[in-house]
Every structure is written in structure tokens, then in C-alpha cells.
Amino acid sequence: MVKYERSSLSGGDDVFEEDPSSQTHAANNGSAANATNNSSATHTPTGKMEVASNAPPEVRFKHLKGKGVNETKWKGQSVSVKLWWERSTLERILLVVCLLLLLTVVIVAIVLATTRKQEFCLTEACITVASSLLMSMDKGADPCDDFYEYSCGTWDKHNPLPEGNNRWSTFGLLWQENRLVLKNVLESELNTTSSAELKAQDFFISCMDEDSIIEKLGAKPLLDIINLQLGGWNATGTFNTSTYDFNQTIRVLGTSYSEQPFFSLFIAGDDKNSSRNILQIAQSGLLLPDSSYLINKTEEDPVLGAYIKMMVTIAKLMGAEEEDAHRQMRAVLQFGQDIANISVRDTNTEDQDPEMLYHLKTITDLQGIMPAIDWLSYLQFLFNGTDIEITKDEPIVVYAPDFLQDMSNLILSSDPIVVHNYMIWRLVTSLMNLLSAAFRQADHDFDQVLSGKRSIPAKWRFCVSDTDASVGFALGALFVKHAFEGHSKAKADEMVDEVKSAFKRNLPDLPWMDEDTRVAAKQKANAIIDLIGFPDYILNPEKLDASYAELELNSSEYFMNNIRVLQFHVKRQLQQLRKTVDRGQWEMTPPQVNAYYAPQKNEIVFPAGILQAPFYDKDYPKSLNFGGMGVVMGHEITHAFDDAGREYDKNGNLYQWWNNDTIQRFNRQTECMVDQYSEYDILGNKVNGRRTLGENIADNGGLKSAYHAYLEWIREHGEEQLLPALGLNHKQLFFLGFAQVWCSTSTPQAARLQLLTDEHTPPRYRVIGTLSNSEEFAEQFKCPVGSPMNPKDKCEVW
Ligand SMILES: [Zn+2]
After folding, report:
1. Which residue has the higher pLDDT, 128 or 37?
2. Which residues lie at CB < 5 A from ion ligand 1?
3. What pLDDT, in 10s, does the model give residues 268-325?
């Protein structure tokens, strides 16, 4: 819900679809002392780097010419002419033959030298990676027709959807490997003194539930909460209207269970003063992932029909009578549809524009906007137990005030029993996966219709993901110790510098930018902080343990462990309010296969989980490392300058640092991309070019920066040895490596779900969209102008 806080690399559904909490818990207050990266700005203003590829042959030619033929001729011209005519015809012929022989030797030597340069890399890593690249390709496809097909055409044959998945990709494969590493660690005896690491293991054991404690408890843990703390549930006949207190219910839900049915309240950096944290409130989530599943739909619709079926099944499992379950759940669903009708859809630019969304208010103002809730008492209850005092003058950033106002009217005009039923249903859906198998089966049956997921994933996969979502930095310590090579951090740091320099070198070539903005953009790029691998504190047992000191976990209470984790993270977030923004705080755990840019911190983050093959490997050719990890880095750097990111200055403040003419010209460039991507479709459904704009800008800018960084690398280090069997040079391999990061497959339902909800373009078009804008790609694959991968009109933003 923290919508503008960060832009990640991948939607991640394929990566974290088994994560039951679906929320990324805020990171710990550790001190990732990854120094700022204000690398020296040594760049030439040309940006034209293609000349680098010709450098080695040119040098050899010059050498031959300078020291050979010319020099001899100059020194002894008159003497040699005289000697020539004193020779007999035979001698002259022999001399010519000798000279010819000498010339042949020289030519052969040159050819041999050239061949040695070009010979194949036959190390284990080169052979393995060449074979892995080949395995996914469809060499029968024309790269100029459809480069995704050429690169990934046979990928899904070797990588069918695994059990329990509705999408599968390179990201998913690597996440699967990371989870296997963690499974092996968590199932062995931990040789550690760190209490936090032992807590991670306890959490995992409680989830695996070898003694079937979860099964024996059935619905009881959740029923206890509802009946003892929330006034019961009318659907199950335990609701007492005479003692019902709406505000008390909503306070307990928010404080103890992090459940906010009618709004989304959080603490994060202030967009207009990036050093301070501030309360922020946005619209609530919906019953289904996108409002289009709810608006103007009836139970005849397959998804809505499956949803009501799941509601009834769960209500009955909780103790409801058949008739009550149907009637009351229908009313809850109707109320959920009413909320969808007033929700704001972010399909046009204004809705995504952070500047337009930002409204700085006080609690008194919020009370006026949303009078259905007693805000001061809500917040004071929430902060009870911390030393933070909240008054009616507390500032709060209000997003979507119209929604909050409509929501308030809807609550006040609806039947209080339906409103209460809805609140409890929201709690039930967020916790039901922690209950017995019957609950998880009902959820799965619904998911099968919504996303096409065919089976429930293996328990251990679910449990590793859940441990990551709950105590991810303790788990991250185990991951880093068992799977992360120490030198990768320094190598990645160096690579970020190289890609960032390439991004800056390109700035003078952008015709739409004025000189002042260019200078400021360079400053912003210099100010980007990068966090790589993991926060340092997790490898210091004392600091790691201190960060989890307030969290009690054990190996037998899975449900309660989750409740304690929820409360622990709520409290930790509340404690941030009076603190300055911590730039070392990570919002992704170390094992994750993803990356992000945080505009309020002007910070890019690359967890250890992604710094591995196929994104990066120290023994891989650099072409593949730049095409994989380099593009990821370029993507996150470019986010600092996408349609939303560009509104934040180098310190992370929302502030207009561009002049109006440049903004207008920038918007014209971006409109080109909106139109381009809106043309793409998956199974008859169009991509939303506007919602995906920020990600598409990042993809295009990232590809270009990484490619130029690679060209610079060649210029400094020379050409690399070829990979066997592929028949491609390294510049071509750069593009192939990039494309293969996006090899993927999904069910038709999951593809539709992604089009509706994900801010990223579907993988196929992340490849086609970016490469068809690249002159350099077209040049390397000799694609004729006008071929699908080399259209005459191209889009360029960065
Ligand atoms: Zn992104």
C-alpha cells in the first residue's frame, strides 16, 4: 500500500506468491553502513562509444605500418634502386618470391594473432553458461522478428509450471534455489549463538508442524480472537449488538492485527521533507486484487462466483449455519463491491503523480474528511505503549481524500452488522492460511479460479517464504553465511559505479533536456546511495539479536508466532515516527530475488538473493553480467528519473527542480512510450501503457546504461573470448543475456491478473519493448529498418 515508496524490479508474484502475509514487513533498524556512492564524475561528454569495438585491430595495423614498410623505404631508397638493377632476372624473380614469402609469413602471423584473440573460452563456467543459454533459445526464430521467441522460445519446455505456481520465471527459479539453501540450513542443527537465528528456525519448525498442532486446533485460535476481543461475529451467531463498539473494534484490529479494513495508515518518510517520518493515510485494499473483479459483477462471473463459494465455506468452517453463511456473506460481498465502486483506479497520470496526491493535513482535518472514525482516540490507542504522544495537531499526509470521505459516508449509511461482518471477514482472510488444511484448501480452490494455480505448493516452500516474510533479516543472516560470496559485494559496488557513469555520460545526448536540468540530473545521479547484499548488522550476532529482542517465538505455536510477528512489526513501525529517516534501513530481505529504488531516500537496493547467476557470476563473461545484473542496476538508477521519480530531488524531496519547458518535452518523450506499450497485448488483453510507464522508462534507460557500461568495459579491457557453440559475439550475447532474464510462463488467468494489477509490463514485452527502441540492438543483429524488432520510429526518454 505504500504505493510511492519504492519501485521494485519485478512484480514478484511469481517469486513471492506463496508468501501468506503478502506484505513486506519493514526492515530492522540496523545500520547498513554501505557508504554513499558519490563516485568521481570522470566522464567524457561525447557518449558515443561504438568506436571502442574497433580499437584493438586499429592498434595492430598502426604498429605494422609505422615500424615496417614505411621506415625501410625512407632510409635506403637510392641504394636499393641501384642494387635491384644489378641483379640477373632469375635473382630478381627469386627476390620477389622471397619477399612474397616474407609477406605471407607476416600475414599468417597476423591471422594467427587475430585467431588467438578470438579463440573460444572453454572454462567450465563458459561451457556451462553457453549450454544453458542454448537450452532456452529457439534458434529457428528470427531475432529481428521476435527476440523474445528467439531467446526464450524453448524455455517453458524445460521449465514447466511447478506444483503450486501460476507463474514461473528465471526469478522464480533462483528464488527456488535460495529457498532450497535455506531449507537445508533450517532443517539442520544450527551451529550458532545468535538467538535471532534460532528464532528463525523455531518459526520454520512451527510452520512445518510435524506434530500436527495446527490441524488439531482447527479454527480455534482465530475464533478466540474474534469472540474474546472483537465482540464475536454475527455470521457465526456470536455477535452481541448491545455491547458493539465500532471504534473499539477498529482500534483493536489495527493495533493487534495490523488490519485496516477502511483505510491504509502507515509511517514513512515525508515526501516534502525527506529526513522526517510522518503519518500517512491512503485508500484501503479491496476484497479482490483489482476493482474490475468486483465492479458490475454478479455471482455468474467465474471469479466472483468462486469467491462467494470460498466465503461460505470458510464461514461454515468457523461455525456458521449454511443459510446464515450464504445470506451474510452475500451482504459482506455487496459491501465490498460498494467499496470497489468508490475506489480510485490509478490508470491516468494524475492519479500516479506524487505531487498531485500529496495533501498535508492534521488529525483535526482528517476528522473532518472521515468523520465515521474517531481519529484521535484511534491514534492514541495505536501509540499506547510507545512514548509518542499524539494530539489533534499531529501532521498527516492524506492521499485520496475523496475516497476516505466516500468511505466514511458508506460506513455511516450501512447496516452496522454488515460493517462489522465485513471487518471480521477482512481479519479472517488475512489469517485463514495460518489455520488447518481445510482453510488452506478453500483458499486454494478460489485461487485456482482467480490465478489458475493448480495445486498447493510443498509445505517447505510455503514455510521458507513465510519465515522470510516474518523474520527475514535473521533468516537473511543464515542465507548470507551459507550462500553469499563475500567478494560479490565489492564487485557489485564497482558495477553500480560503471552503470551509473554510463547513465551520466548519456545525459548530454538527450536533446529534450536543458543545460540546468542536465547539471542537476547529474548531481542527483551522483547522490544516489546504493545498498548491496545485506545490512552489515545482521552478521553481528549482538546487533542482530538486539533487533529481535522484543520478539518471542517458539517451535510449537505457529498461529500465535504469526500474531506476535504482526504486533512486533506494527510496534517497530510506530517507533519510527519521531525518528529521522534511516537511510540504512532495508525494505527487502537479503534472500529475495528482486531490487528496488526508494525515491524519498534516493536509494537503490540489491539484496544478496539477486546477486547470483543468471544475473551475475564472477566467472561469467562480462557481457552476460552486464546484460543481467547491469541492466537491473541501470533499471533502478533510471527509476530516479522516471515519471514519478523525477519529481523528487537529490535529497528525496518532492520539489520541482526542472523548468516547465523541459517537463513538457519530457512528457512528450514519455507519451511515445505510453503509446508504444499500449499496443502490446496478451491473449487479447492490452497492456496498460500508462500504469506501466515508470517501469518501462526504467527498463529502457537501464538497458542503454548497462550496454554503454559494457562498451566502456571492453574499451578498457579488450574483447572477451567467444562462447562456444552459440555463434554470437559478445555484444549480441549482452542482449541475449538480458532477454533470458525474462524467460517465463504463466497460466492465462495469472497473465490477466498481472495485466490488471502489476505496474510491470509482462515479461515478453519487457524484452520486445526495450530492444525495439535500441539502435544498438538492431545494429548488432543486423535487423532491417522496418522489421518488427527495428521499427523506424523509436521511443527514447533516457
Ligand atoms: Zn522497477
Report:
1. 128
2. 7, 695, 698
3. 999 999 999 999 999 999 999 999 999 999 999 999 999 999 999 999 999 999 999 9
Helix and strand totals (H; E) in the chain: 35, 12
Convert the pLDDT of each residue in 368-378 to its tens digit: 999 999 999 99
595 CA distance to ligand 1 centroid (A)?
8
Cell of 189: 542443527
pLDDT of residue 107: 64
pLDDT in tens, 237-279: 999 888 899 999 999 999 999 999 999 999 999 999 999 999 9
- Look up the domain containing 62 and give its range: 37-119
Q: What is the pLDDT of residue 246?
A: 96
- Burial level of 30, CB count in 10 A (0-12/13-18/19+)? buried
Q: What is residue 649's three-state secondary structure? A: coil
Q: How far is the CA of 311 from the centre of ligand 1 (A)?
A: 35
Q: Are residues 429 and 522 in the same domain?
A: no
547 vs 538: CA distance, rounded Å: 9
Give the containing element (helix H, strand E) for 268.
strand 264-270
Stretch 708-719: mean pLDDT: 96
What is the residue whose three cell numbers read 451482504?
A: 331
Q: From CA 480, how far away is CA 472, in angstroms rounded?
A: 12
Judge if 98 and 162 occupy the same domain: no
Residue 666 lies inside a defined structural domain of this protein: yes
**Residue at 177 is within a domain:** no
Question: What would the DSSP string read from start to end of 361-430?
Answer: EEHHHHHHH-TTS-HHHHHHHHTBTBS----TT-EEEES-HHHHHHHHHHHHHS-HHHHHHHHHHHHHHH
| Residue at 797 is within a domain | no
Provide the CA 7 distance to its chain's centre, in angstroms: 7
Tell me how far the alpha carbon of residue 514 lies from the centroid of ligand 1, in angstroms.
26
What kind and span of H or E run contains 732?
helix 730-740
* Distance separating alpha carbons of residues 209 and 199, to the nearest angstrom: 15
Query: Can you tell me whether residue 598 is helix, strand or coil?
Result: strand
What are the residue numbers of the active site? 636, 699
Domain holding 766: CATH number?
Answer: 3.40.390.10
Given a contact cutoff of 8 angstroms between Cβ atoms, the answer to whether 697 and 672 are in contact is: no
Q: What is the pLDDT of residues 516-559, one digit of tens each?
A: 999 999 999 999 999 999 999 999 999 999 999 999 999 999 99
Residue 247 is placed in which grid cell?
A: 471504534
CB of 742 closer than 8 Å to CB of 170: yes
* Ligand 1 centroid – CA 638 distance (Å): 9
CA of 327 to the centre of ligand 1 (A): 43
Determine phi and psi for 591, rounding to 5 degrees.
Answer: -75, -10
Closest CA to 121 of 720, 733, 777: 720
Residues 115 and 153 in one domain: no
Secondary element (H or E) of residue 547:
helix 541-547
Q: Minimal CA–CA distance to 742: which of 758, 757, 724, 760? A: 760
Determine the Cα–Cα distance for residues 607 and 586; give it in Å rounded to an integer. Answer: 9
- Which of 225, 230, 289, 560 has its CA nearest to residue 423? 230
Q: Which residues pair with 269 in a beta bridge?
A: 277
10 Å CB burial of residue 153 (0-12, 13-18, 19+) is: middle
| C-alpha separations of 42 from 497, 646, 693, 767 in Å | 11, 23, 31, 31
Which residues lie below 8 Å from residue 637, measured CB to CB, with a gap of 6+? Answer: 496, 499, 500, 503, 525, 528, 597, 604, 701, 702, 705
Q: Determine, yes or no, domain membership for 298.
A: yes
Of 746, 745, 725, 747, residue with least CA distance to 736: 725
Question: 377 CB contacts (<8 Å, ≥6 apart)?
Answer: 247, 251
| CB-based contact 635:496 (threshold 8 Å) | no
pLDDT in tens, 77-113: 444 445 556 666 777 777 777 677 777 666 655 555 5
Beta-sheet pairing, 264-270 with 273-282: antiparallel
